[in-house]
Amino acid sequence: MRVLLVHPSALMYSEIFLRLEPLGLERVAAAARDAGHQVQVVDLQVLRHRDLRRVVRSWRPEVVGFSLNYLANIPEAIDLSRAIKRELPGCFVFFGGHSVSFVAGDVLRQAEGAVDAVVRGEGEPAMEPLLQAVRDGGLQEVPGIVTAAGYGPAPRMLHGIDSPRPARDLMRHRRRYFIGELDPCASMEFTRGCPWDCSFCSAWTFYGRSYRKASPEAAAEELASIAEPNVFIVDDVAFIRPEHGDAIAAELERRRVRKQYYLETRADVLLRHTEVFERWTRLGLRYMFLGMEALDAEGLDLFRKRVNPDDNFRALETARKLGINVAINLIVDPAWDAERFKLVREFALSVPEIVHLTVMTPYPGTEIWHTESRRLTTRDYRLFDIQHAVVPTTLPLERFYEELVRTQSVINRKHLGLRTAFGAARILTDRLAHGQTNFARMLWKFNRVYNPGRQLADHRRPVRYELPLPPGVPVGDRRELYIHTRQAPRSSGPSARPSGGPAGLPE
Ligand code: B12
Ligand code: SF4
C-alpha cells in the first residue's frame, strides 16, 4: 500500500532555537517499509501545507498517519485530516504518538469521522498488523488501536530498540535540522524510557516507567552511518547506566567516529557518573541540557524531582570543569509575581549557562493533570506548549507575559552577547560558507517569535477543539496513568479509557 506519514508544524519554541528530525516517525516509517509497503514522509516542520497537498494529490496515498507527540499540534492534524478525507474519501487516516495516546478517545470524537483510528503507544510494533488490517479487515484486533468502535487490545511494546533503524533516507530536507550552532544536526536514540517519576512529566507514564537500552554495537553502527557532523541524543536522561555509555563510547573509539553531541541528563546522574561524561567530551560532547526545574528545595519537592538544589549547583560546576556548555531549564509557575521574575533574571545573569524557561502546564498523562487544583483558564490544545499560561496567573495575564518575555530576552541577550563576543561571528561565517543558514536565522528571529502581544493574542483565537476536562479526582495507583502495561485493557467506547494495571515491565 502507499503509506504517507506526516509530522505537524513546528511549535513556537522550535521556530528559533532548534528544529530536529522526527525520529519516532522515521522509525514508524521503517516498520511500515519493512512490512513491504511504499512509504513517504512529509515533515511540516520544514515543509508547507501546500507541499503536503501536492503529495496527497499526486501520489494519492491509501493510508495517511500523523505523528502527534505534542498536544498543541492536535487541531492542525485534525484539520489536515478533514482536508485529506475531502480529497481522498477512501483514504485511511490515523494518528499516533506520545500525547495523542493519552487523549485518543476524545480526539477521535472531535475529528467527527475525519480520523479513522488512533494507535496508542509505540508505533513500530503496530505498523505491520495495522496496515494488514486496513487491507484485509480485523482493525479492532490491532494492539493499541482505538476506533469509533472502542479500544482494542493493549499496545505492544518493542523488546529491544536496536531495530527498525529510523528511515532517515526518507527525509528530503535533512540540512534544515539543527540545534543552536550544531547546524546541521541529526538525532539518535541510545535508550528509551525513564525510571524517575516527576509530577510534571509524561515520559515515565507513557513507557510505564520501563527503561530499555540499545546494544552498544548497534548504537555505534547507527551513529557511524549518520552523515551529519552533529548529533542530538534524544534520551530523556543520558547515561543513567554509566557502563552502557562507556560501552558505546568504546565502540565509537574503535570505529574512530567523531562528531559533536548534544544530550539531556539530570544533575544527580552527572554527579554520580562524571567519568562517562568526561569520556564523551573526548568524543565530541559539547552541549548538555539539564532539567533543573526549580532553584529551591520546595519547588524541587513539588515536582518530585528527587534532587536537591546543592546537587543542581554542583552539577553546573562539574559541567563547567568538563568544558560542556549547559542549558538549564526552569519551570515558571503562573503564580510568580514580578519580584520572583526579577530574582530569576538575577540568577540567570549570574551564571554563564543558557537558561530556558518553560511554563508549568498540567498535561494529560502527567500527575499534575490530576492533582493541580487551580482550574484551567483555557482548554485550547494550541496553548498547551509550555510557553503559555493555562492556569490563573497572579499577575494580570498581560503583565505575566511581559515579565516572561522580558526575562527570556534578558537571558537571550546575555547568551547572544557572549556568543557574538566569543565566536558567533566565526561560527556564523563557517556555517554560511557551508550553506547552513539555520543558525544565522535563529540569531535574528527572537523578537518576532517571543513577544508578549503575540502570546496574549494566542489566547484570543477562536477555539474549535478543546482538551477534555481533567478528571478532578486524585490519582490512586499511579500505574493507572501508564500507556504501556501488561494488562489488556477492556474494550469500550472511544470515550471510556482503558484502565492501567500492574507495571511488571522490563526495568
Ligand atoms: C527529543 C524530544 C524533543 C526534540 C525533538 C522533537 C521532534 N522533532 O521530534 C526537541 C528538543 C526538538 C523537542 C522539543 C519540544 N518538546 Co519534546 N521531547 C523529546 C523527547 C525527550 C523524546 C522524543 C523522541 O524523539 N523519542 C524517541 C522516539 C523514537 O520516540 P517518539 O518520538 O515518542 O515516537 C514513538 C511513539 O511516540 C510513537 N509515534 C510517534 N509518532 C508516531 C506516528 C504514528 C503514526 C504512530 C502510529 C506512532 C508514532 O511511535 C514512536 C516509536 O515508538 C520527549 C519525551 C519522551 N520520552 O517521549 C519530549 C516530549 C515529547 N517533548 C515535550 C515538549 C513539551 C516539547 C516542547 C513543546 C518543549 C518546549 N516548548 O520547549 C518542544 C516542541 C517541539 C516542536 N514540535 O516544535 C513533551 C510533550 C508534552 C505534550 N504532552 O505535548 C515531552 C513528552 C516531554 C515531557 N517532559 O513531557 N522535544
Ligand atoms: S523530567 Fe526527566 S527525570 Fe523526570 S520523569 Fe521526566 S524524563 Fe524522567
Automatic annotation (TrEMBL):
Upper lineage: Bacteria, Bacillati, Actinomycetota, Actinomycetes, Kitasatosporales
Keyword Phosphoprotein: no
Keyword Disulfide bond carried by entry: no
Region feature Disordered, mapped onto this chain: 484-507
GO terms under biological process: methylation
Protein name: Hopanoid C-3 methylase HpnR
UniProt KW keywords: Iron, Iron-sulfur, Metal-binding, Methyltransferase, S-adenosyl-L-methionine, Transferase
Pfam families: B12-binding, Radical_SAM
Requisite cofactors: [4Fe-4S] cluster
Domain Radical SAM core stretches: 180-414
Name of encoding gene: hpnR
Matching InterPro entries: Aldolase_TIM, BchE-like, Cobalamin-bd, Cobalamin-bd_sf, Elp3/MiaA/NifB-like_rSAM, HpnR_B12_rSAM, Methyltransferase_Class_B, rSAM
UniProt domain B12-binding: residue ranges: 8-141
NCBIfam families, sorted: HpnR_B12_rSAM
GO cellular component: cytosol
Composition skew (Low complexity), residue ranges: 488-500
GO MF annotations, alphabetized: cobalamin binding; iron-sulfur cluster binding; metal ion binding; methyltransferase activity
